[in-house]
Description:
The chain is an alpha/beta fold. It has one domain (54-358): Rossmann fold (3-Layer(aba) Sandwich), CATH 3.40.50.1820. The protein is 50% helix and 13% strand. The protein has 15 helices and nine strands. Helix 4 (123-136) crosses helix 5 (149-160) and helix 5 (149-160) packs across helix 11 (240-260). It starts with a helix and ends in a 7-residue tail after the last strand.
Amino acid sequence: MEDATMADLFGEAPARSSRWRGGLLVAGALAxxxxxxxxxxxxxxxxxxxxxxxxxxxxxxxxHYQTWGSGxxxxxxxxxxxxxxxxxxxGLVQRLARDYRVILFDRPGFGHSSRPRDRLWTxxxxxxxxxxxxxxxxxxRPLVLGHSLGALVALAMALDYPASVAGLVxxxxxxxxxxxxPSLMVAPVALPVxxxxxxxxxxxxxxxxxxxxxxxxxxxxxxxxxDFFQQLAxxxxxxxxxxxxxxxxxxxxLPQVRLLAPRYPQLRVPVxxxxxxxxxxxxxxxxxxxxxxxxxxxxxxxxRGAGHMVHHAAQExxxxxxxxxxxxARRPRPPGDTQAAARAQLDALAPDGLxxxxxxxxxxx
Length: 365
């Protein structure tokens, strides 16, 4: 009996090994098929949605940009996960182009811009590239408007190149080192090798399943515009190259704001800080209200009835802040214009220190 049992055990080991090999072969075949499908979807999306702007080549980056209108220079920087088409879809670009030369970039890795792997694309690295691009376009001292992650890039540009930025308009930004769940979730996708494999397999599938929810959260409490995924091609958002850029930007946010936040009081340009009162992505009190209180030359607008996509909800409010910042930039500063005076002015805006604007459209219940 004992000999038979031992024989049975020795006989099962090769069988188990064979099953493992078979499972691995099946998993490998599925992964390969998924990767091929993802690659084809990405190439098809790029063929069906070609770039509508121009390109410049700087520091090894193929940078996609567009210019609209004429007047004072105004650079627009989009947020994470999206690309410049989001700003066009909001109607903000067309509105601002009536009075400004609007310069619209796809940040590195997004839309039709490349993202070389020869450097870490921190907000400061992106700011350095876009600073050079603006100079190449003859925009020596533009206003810079950034949304979400783009606001952090705009801040880095003003801090590192203070003589080259006239003023800032910052919308729905993440400015202080607080725990941000999505950045932890996407961190593995940003890694070399492992992240590459994930973006063509597991992440490619999960991103498709989660995209609708992610966009609804960004627009909440408002509805997602019905033509949003027509104006921002869904498959362009889901390409492995764009997933990598979004994952890297998300993973770098927390360590980067730890470095940038102590420098915020150094800003000497006028700044408008905007946020949606019901932002479910970045808490407006923890970030926007705190930043406006800390900056020496700032104004704050909290938009009632709006969420993270405040530029879709309140174009008029954004335009008003652009105009106000430009006027502040042109006005000579009195010698006594101190941070304390700026805070007193901010506190006078409303009893709770918040300037409020009610956006038109569908406010929350």
